[in-house]
Amino acid sequence: MKKNEDKKDFKSISHTIFVLMSLSKEARIWFFLKCINGATMGIVYGILMRYIEYFTNAAVNKDMTLFKQTTVVYLILLAFMVLTRFFGPFMGNRYSMYTIRDIKRKILLNIHDLKINYFDDKHSGDIVTKLTNDVTILENFISNDMATLFGYLPGALGYAIISMFIMNTRLSLLVLPIVLLASYFTMKFSFRMRGISNQRQKYISNMNMILRDILENIGIVKIYNLNDHYFKKYDEELSSAQKEENKVYKNNQIISVIGFMVRIIPYVSVFFIGIYFIGRNQLTISQMVGFSALSGYSFGNLQNLYAIIAHAAESTGAMDHINEISNEKKERVDGSDFSSVNHADAFEFSHVFYDYVEGITVINDMSFSIKRGSKTALVGESGCGKSTVVKLIQGYYDNYTGDILINGLSIKEWSLKALRSNYSYVSQDEYLFSDSIRNNIMYGKISATEEEFNHVCTVTGVNEIAEEQENGYDSMIGERGVQLSGGQRQRIHLARALLSDNQFILLDEPTSSLDTRSEYYIEKAIQNTGENKTIVIIAHRLSTIINCDDIIVIKAGKTVESGTHESLMNKKGEYYHLYNSQEVL
Amino acid sequence: MKKKNKVSVIKDLKKIVKLSGKSGVKYIVLVILQSAADGLGLPIIAYFSKYIIDYAINKNRTDLLISIGLIIGQIVLMVLNSILNYYISKQKYIIGMNIKRRMFAHFVNLPVAYFEKAHSGDTIARINGDTDLFLNSLDMVYRIISNFMSTIIAVPAILVLDIRMGLLAGIVGTLSAYINKKFRVPIRKQNETLRKQVSIVLTEIIENISGFKVIKTYNLQEHFKNRFFNKQEEIIKTKKKKIVYSSSLYSLNSFIYQFNNSAVLIYGTYLIIKGLLTIGDLAALRQLGVRIGYLLIDSTESFSKAQDAFAGSDRVLEFLNQPVEKENIPVSGKPCDSLICLDDVYFSYIDGSEVLKGISIDIKKGEKVALVGYSGHGKSTIVKLMLGLYDFTEGTYTFEGRSACDYTKKQIRRKVSYVSQNATIFNGTIKENILNGKLEATDEEVIEAAKKAHAHEFIIEQEKQYDTVVGERGIKLSGGQRQRVALARAILKNGEILILDEATSSLDSKSEEFIKDSLDQFMKDRTNIIVAHRLSTVENSDMIYLIEDGRVEEKGTHQELLSLNGKYSKLYYKDFI
Fold first, then answer.
1. Among B82, B207, B418, whose Cβ lies nearest the Cβ of A253?
2. Nearest Cα residue to A537 out of A514, A560, A509
């Protein structure tokens, strides 16, 4: 059991390293160069250590000529070494710079590939953690350890150990068991780091979630005096994270003690065993001094290796945490574009069932069709499934049963990207970017001309908003448009949607939070959209939907009635009741 | 902004102590002790080599005994070292906890205005990345102290053995210190730029996450990818510059180090041949000389590396120096017997745009007062001023007959149940969200409040009922459901003043009808302030203020205002153009 786990750990650590090596071409090239550079350095440095024996030899024999010869060769090697070493840091830093860039890119691209409803269940604080805390851990590993592990250490250790065996096999064999034993224990403790690190990052994620929540709801936090409450919550997560951190420290402590012993025990034993061999004339003084220098060099590097393995395990924990996102189900990219298919029905639902989570049925055997070019309203109580319908036709969810046809073709045959390019969607709380008014609107259609832009701004009354601002359309509106009022934000949403000028217009309660002026603009804009647009509108203010071509009444995930306002009123059914309760107000 | 060119290490160290407090002092003391133990190990091993080699050559028993004694000493030191090391780690962990706590405590107490200015990405970058950098600077302090201690212990040891080698190490150290000093300022500067850029990139990502659905619906992936890549390229540019500096510095340092090593070896051998040194001496000298050279270089280098970490500490301090929200609303009040009196209030944002231009409002206890008018004309700002979320630019504020400054903001807020337009609720369960109104409330009270807000009906339909997790910003609930949870929270709080800031606008007619009754019940015996743009909801108010362009344009009851035949009646009849 335990052994298998170790094996698994080893596998995933090597996998992490493999991923870190294979990001982009730039990163790969620099990594390769740095490794070659490191390996050369490790070997040359080892050779220089070997020269300690030759110098000692000259000293013991008081041989001036030998001394001079040795010095010359030594200096040449030294010059070569210095030159090699000079370029090393440039390569290493370049490598880590590109790698970190690529990891962040990968995370961003992974975010873009996620299903559109991903953040319905997942908190964004978690991704923030991946991008900050996890990447920092990887950054430390990459910039300090990665290339050392594959360049310098193999070179240095390889050379040193081979030379030691050549110099004195018996002495080497006696020292070796100690090293192997220590290596075994270090590995064991190192692998633990992966789990600890992953666990710690999870707590940090929770901390970041709280942070994000407060950042978005700061007003309520203040008015309800929740500062202390959230502080306590944060503190709990922090303590748990720090407990894991403490485990990291303890583990590191053990590893460093083992490392220390690896350095000191063989070093000391070399002398004692060496003296024994000298006594039996199997070794000279200068050989012993040389051997001890070389063994000092290799054991020092072994200690280094252990530390790096521990870091690698820790980084794998962080990498596991990052990878969670690339292991998420991606949105499908197959399907084709049927935008120009001219089918009589723009949308059709046929016996659609959809469970939001298992057991909670939101759409319960729903069937209806919406004609091309018509203006249709979806009405019903809050939570009856209206918004879900609008989301379903945009391809938010794929785990429904029944058929959803857009332009007469099942959504499942559509390319989601092409499908979405047909919608202009306005909902109640769409996001506005921390950018200028102009850019926020231009996101509707990045290629729009100034004329088109001015047109939608006039239609939606955004021009009025811009006039009040100091920098006009170039005024920055803050994160989520925080510097604007609710009505102003909604008008910008609308302008953005209108600019995109797509054939299907979806309005999810677009006027509910509006003052009369904004509402006026929006209604005017809806009326003036072209003939060939298909409009689906969700509203609970019946006044805005009276003149729709068709009204679909939804109750508990089912269509219960449909027809025009008049026909439904005459029917005295569900719609009639809804309408009358509105009158009460 | 002018930046001082001088970078003072002492100042930076002071900052660190300032940020870490008592634990910081403990940390430093422990580090000094540990460094001493660690530092002693170096001459011990060096002398061990000398005596054991001397023994190998001369077979002098005393040499052997000394070397064995030294090894035992080294083992004792190692044990001591490990224990101290553990405590150092522990202190570091305490400091880390404290600083994060402090950052967070500071963060929740910042004024609302801060959050409207700063992007959440920047705040997160500071609380996360920069505090981590600050903790790195502790490691730097450790390295600097440890190098210093090892050096002052090793220098006498080398001088005793051979004074020339000691001098050599001195020269190397001075040279390296000089070079490193030259590099310090530019590296620090680049790091400051870099930290800023890192927070910009994080901001980009957060925009991508928050605007995720918009990006998907408008197929903006390509655009945002490019935007992100471009921002990254800027970082790459700065980093490339930094790399030139830091790599050159590193290379120069290692050159000096190699020079020192080789000099000791070659010159030492020469001295042995000349009979001025023993082989054992050289082994010891080599170890000491190499180490001292390394220590000197490393301490100067760690000063430079510390610049990176200190840049993080700067940003942490900058954040901690942001003024927190004031305890009270620093405005005096005119004598007035109403519950709330605002007189001649002006308010401008920091950028100078004037929102309120001389508002006077009078709210009597038990009244129902409405603020109406177009979106963006200052209605919500008035409420925010009353609650102390914004600071007055000018004007007076009387609360319960006394100056507002006689109360703490907490006292005033405690009396208010507030429901906003966007129904901001938190990630967590429905119950937790309602409990935010009154943290110590019982389950019965929570259910009671939910029933009053007509939230109970939909809550019990959920699989996990009150323990249903609502998702970030309540994303799993519909707009109307969110609003009802927010209302339940307000009802549970049971404040004597109820503020509804466009609170019922996103409810469907049925919920609104339901809520109307219970809300009417709740509004009884309470002072109610209603912000609305839908006039139908406020007709029966005791007083209606029509706010336009930051001024009170008209005021009176519904009937009075209609008979004025002014802007209110126009608004009422949706009379445009």
1. B82
2. A509
Interface of B with A in 137-196 (CB under 8 A): none
What backbone phi and psi angles, to 5 degrees, belong to A393? -75, -10
| Closest residue in B to A485 (Cα–Cα) | B376
B289 token code pair = 């000389």
| Closest residue to A124, CB basis, from B209, B240, B282 | B209
By DSSP bridging, strand B354-363 and strand B402-403 are unpaired
All domains of chain B, ordered by start, with CATH? Answer: 9-320 (1.20.1560.10)
Is residue B222 exposed (0-12), middle (13-18) or buried (19+ Cβ within 10 Å)?
A: exposed
| CA–CA distance, B184 with B187 (Å, rounded to integer) | 5
Answer positive or negative: Cα dihedral of B159, B164, B167, B169.
negative
Tell the residue number behind the tokens 């028993």, with chain if given.
Answer: B61
Among A256, A272, A428, select the one facing B479 at the smallest CB separation.
Answer: A428
**Nearest CA-CA partner of A163 in A285, A48, A302, A41:** A48
Classify strands A401-406 and A409-410 as parallel, antiparallel or unpaired: antiparallel
- Asked if the Cβ–Cβ distance from B236 to A81 is below 8 Å, we say no
User: What gap in Å lies between CA A433 and CA B213, rounded to an integer?
Assistant: 12
Q: Calculate how close chain A gets to B418, using CA atoms only, in Å.
A: 7
Which residue segments constitute the domains of chain A, with CATH numbers given? 2-199+242-326 (1.20.1560.10), 345-584 (3.40.50.300)
Using DSSP, how many helices (H) and how many strands (E) does chain B show?
18, 10
A141-185 pLDDT per residue, tens: 887 788 888 888 999 989 988 888 888 888 888 877 777 777 777
Looking up tokens 């939230």, which residue turns up? B455
Cα–Cα distances in angstroms (integers) from residue B290 to residues B215, B296, B542, in the given order: 59, 10, 88
Residue identified by tokens 């990968």 is A106
Amino acid occupying residue B236: I
Query: Contact, A506 vs A424, CB < 8 A?
Result: yes
- The interface residues of chain A toward chain B in range 8-47, judged by CB-CB distance below 8 A, are none
CB–CB contact A221 B108 (8 Å): yes
Q: Do A111 and B513 touch (CB under 8 A)?
A: no
pLDDT over threshold 80, residue B428: no
Q: List the structure tokens of A16.
A: 């992490």
In chain B, which residues have their Cβ closer than 8 Å to the Cβ of A30? none
Q: How does the average pLDDT of chain B come out, rounded? A: 79
Question: Element (H or E) spanning A201, and its range?
Answer: helix A169-216
CA dist B381 and B116 (Å) reads 13
Would you call B468 an interface residue with chain A, using a CB distance cutoff of 8 Å?
no
Q: Which residues of A touch B389 (CB under 8 A)?
A: 219, 222-223
Substitution target in A220, A258, A583 with the highest count of B β-carbons within 10 Å is A220
Instruction: Give the pLDDT score at B69.
Output: 92
Q: Tell me whether B436 touches chain A (CB under 8 Å).
A: yes
B115·A218 Cβ contact <8 A: yes
CB atoms within 10 A of CB A169: 10
pLDDT digits (tens, 9 = 90+) for B48-85: 888 888 888 888 888 889 988 998 898 888 888 888 88
- As a three-state string, the secondary structure of A274-308 is HHHHHHCCCCCHHHHHHHHHHHHHHHHHHHHHHHH
Q: Please name which of A308, A370, A320 lies closest in space to residue A343, comparing C-alpha atoms.
A: A370
> B383 with B499: CB under 8 angstroms?
yes
Instruction: Flag whether residue B211 sits within 8 Å of chain A, measured between CB atoms.
Output: yes
Cα-Cα-Cα-Cα dihedral sign, residues A441, A445, A449, A454: negative
Say whether B202 and A253 touch across the interface (CB within 8 A): no
Task: Give whole-number Cα distances, A145 to A32, A95, B305, in Å.
Answer: 14, 12, 17
**Residues in CB range of B378: below 8 A, 6 or more apart:** B347, B355, B356, B359, B547, B549, B550
